[in-house]
Amino acid sequence: MTHMENAQLAQMVDHTLLKPEATHADVAALAREAEALGAYSICVSPSMLPVETTVKVATVCGFPSGKHVSAVKAAEAADSVAKGADEVDMVIDVGAAIEGSFEAVEADIRAVREAAPSPCVLKVIIESAALTDEQIVAVCRAAESAGADFVKTSTGFHPAGGASEHAVALMRETVGDRLGVKASGGIRTREAAEAMVAAGASRLGLSGTRAVLEG
């Protein structure tokens, strides 16, 4: 891989640290590493904000279960934006999607969108490994209708698993070029990262960014 290709890949990465035991020192180190690697952003827990860094700052909302009422998700997102978050990755109520309550899923996303309006980038974590193809398509459509900027595969914390090429391709097919697609969860090698991009991912959530970039 040439240096230019490495830089291109790095510019697709949200360099991520969402472990419950993460400290402020860990987050500061994450930010320095993201800057050194040329990553697009860091993704950290809301309690870690604000973070001083020259890269974009993303955070999560309703994480990792998604089983928070919409008003709480909205308040969390608004607080994060007030503390400097450029992007918010919210978790849907996965159970609502499984039972076919897609209007409720859309309303939940819209509540966060209204609390964190553009230019904040809103990514919607759908937990694709826990959904059927039909549910993935319906949730992606709900996210688009609610005004989201991205759909995202996974929290990385669900026992059903993380990103798959199949899910990424299906999500890309559903949203076309209108929304971004973020692949996250279990992407630990250069080969896996490039496979996700080939499948249609426009952003990657990585915790082991250096290892992936160095192949």
Automatic annotation (TrEMBL):
<comment type="similarity">
    <text>Belongs to the DeoC/FbaB aldolase family. DeoC type 1 subfamily.</text>
</comment>
<dbReference type="GO" id="GO:0016052">
    <property type="term" value="P:carbohydrate catabolic process"/>
</dbReference>
<protein>
    <recommendedName>
        <fullName>Deoxyribose-phosphate aldolase</fullName>
        <ecNumber>4.1.2.4</ecNumber>
    </recommendedName>
</protein>
<dbReference type="GO" id="GO:0005737">
    <property type="term" value="C:cytoplasm"/>
</dbReference>
<dbReference type="Pfam" id="PF01791">
    <property type="entry name" value="DeoC"/>
</dbReference>
<keyword id="KW-0704">Schiff base</keyword>
<comment type="function">
    <text>Catalyzes a reversible aldol reaction between acetaldehyde and D-glyceraldehyde 3-phosphate to generate 2-deoxy-D-ribose 5-phosphate.</text>
</comment>
<dbReference type="InterPro" id="IPR013785">
    <property type="entry name" value="Aldolase_TIM"/>
</dbReference>
<feature type="active site" description="Proton donor/acceptor">
    <location>
        <position position="89"/>
    </location>
</feature>
<comment type="pathway">
    <text>Carbohydrate degradation; 2-deoxy-D-ribose 1-phosphate degradation; D-glyceraldehyde 3-phosphate and acetaldehyde from 2-deoxy-alpha-D-ribose 1-phosphate: step 2/2.</text>
</comment>
<feature type="active site" description="Proton donor/acceptor">
    <location>
        <position position="182"/>
    </location>
</feature>
<keyword id="KW-0456">Lyase</keyword>
<dbReference type="InterPro" id="IPR011343">
    <property type="entry name" value="DeoC"/>
</dbReference>
<dbReference type="GO" id="GO:0009264">
    <property type="term" value="P:deoxyribonucleotide catabolic process"/>
</dbReference>
<dbReference type="GO" id="GO:0004139">
    <property type="term" value="F:deoxyribose-phosphate aldolase activity"/>
</dbReference>
<dbReference type="InterPro" id="IPR028581">
    <property type="entry name" value="DeoC_typeI"/>
</dbReference>
<feature type="active site" description="Schiff-base intermediate with acetaldehyde">
    <location>
        <position position="152"/>
    </location>
</feature>
<dbReference type="InterPro" id="IPR002915">
    <property type="entry name" value="DeoC/FbaB/LacD_aldolase"/>
</dbReference>
<keyword id="KW-0963">Cytoplasm</keyword>
<dbReference type="GO" id="GO:0006018">
    <property type="term" value="P:2-deoxyribose 1-phosphate catabolic process"/>
</dbReference>
